[in-house]
């Protein structure tokens, strides 16, 4: 029998680990107003394709629903997630 074709695992540009601080582009509350922008969060789970980020404020899905556990999932190679950089 021939070899079974399989997909390669994605090779992320940045290797995230649980506990890392990151910034995510998402809809969230800022001073009582819903905005779309970069928000600081903490990595709570990483697998070979996805990364879970938890926030201290309310975050929303693209269709407008608030996420009750404050956790959003992103693909590892998403342009909407980056390592956190302290503001000067």
- Please give the oligomerization state of what you see: single chain
SSE run: EEEEEE
Q: Could you tell me the mean pLDDT? A: 87
pLDDT < 50 stretches: none
Question: Which sheet architecture does the biggest sheet show?
Answer: 6 strands, antiparallel
Quick recap:
The chain is mainly beta and 88 residues long. The chain contains no helices and six strands. Strands 1, 2, 3, 4, 5 and 6 form a six-stranded antiparallel β-sheet that branches.
Topology summary:
Layout: E1 21-30, E2 33-46, E3 50-54, E4 59-60, E5 71-75, E6 81-83
Antiparallel strand pairs: 1-2, 1-4, 1-6, 2-3, 3-5
Task: Give me some keywords for this one.
0% helix
Q: Can you offer a commentary on this structure?
A:
The structure is a single chain. This protein has strands at 21-30, 33-46, 50-54, 59-60, 71-75, 81-83. The mean pLDDT is 87. The protein is globular. It is built from no helices and six strands. Strands 1, 2, 3, 4, 5 and 6 form a six-stranded antiparallel β-sheet that branches. The chain has one domain. By secondary structure, the protein is mainly beta.
